[in-house]
Design goal:
The protein is mainly alpha-helical and 142 residues long. It is built from five helices and two strands. It comes from Alexandrium andersonii.
Length: 142
C-alpha cells in the first residue's frame, strides 16, 4: 500500500490525498454485496462537510460485522462447532475488552498516512494498526 501510494502520488501530479477510503482484507474474505454502498453511506454520515476541503476528515475505522458461518449447514460437525465457538469468543471475550479482530476494515487514506499503513508481516496487524492510529492521532479512533 505504501508503494502504491508512492507511485500514484509521484506519477499523477493531480492526485489529492483526500476523499479516498482504503479497505484491508484477508485474501479469502467474503464481502456482503452491499458492503461498499454501506461504507460510502457511513463515510458521508461521518463527514457531512466533504465538499469543504478545509475541514479535516473524521479519523475512524469502519468494520463490517463478521460472520464465520457461510454455508455452515454444509460443513462437518467439528467445523460448525469451531465456527460457533469462535463467534461467541469474539462477541463475549474480545469485543468486551475493545479488542475487535478486524479481518475486513476500511479507513480514510489520511488516517493510513498518519499511522504509516499496516505491516503485512505482523500477526494481529489489525489490532496493531488500530493502536498506531490512536498514537498517530493522539485520540481514540472509533
Amino acid at each position: 500500500l505504501r508503494q502504491a501510494f508512492k507511485h500514484v502520488s509521484t506519477h499523477h501530479p493531480d492526485f489529492q490525498q483526500t476523499s479516498y477510503t482504503v479497505t484491508t482484507c484477508d485474501t479469502d474474505s467474503l464481502f456482503c454485496p452491499q458492503y461498499f454502498d454501506v461504507l460510502e453511506a457511513c463515510y458521508d454520515r461521518e463527514n457531512p462537510h466533504a465538499a469543504d476541503a478545509r475541514q479535516p476528515v473524521r479519523m475512524c475505522v469502519w468494520q463490517p460485522p463478521m460472520f464465520y458461518n457461510w454455508h455452515l449447514d454444509e460443513r462437518p460437525f467439528f467445523v460448525r462447532v469451531t465456527g460457533i465457538v469462535r463467534a461467541m469468543m469474539m462477541l463475549g471475550g474480545l469485543i468486551s475488552f475493545s479488542l475487535n479482530p478486524m479481518s475486513i476494515f476500511s479507513y480514510p487514506l489520511e488516517l493510513g498516512l498518519a499511522a504509516g499503513f499496516i505491516n503485512p508481516r505482523y500477526g494481529v496487524d489489525d489490532i496493531i494498526f488500530k493502536v498506531r492510529c490512536m498514537c498517530a492521532t493522539n485520540q481514540s479512533v472509533p
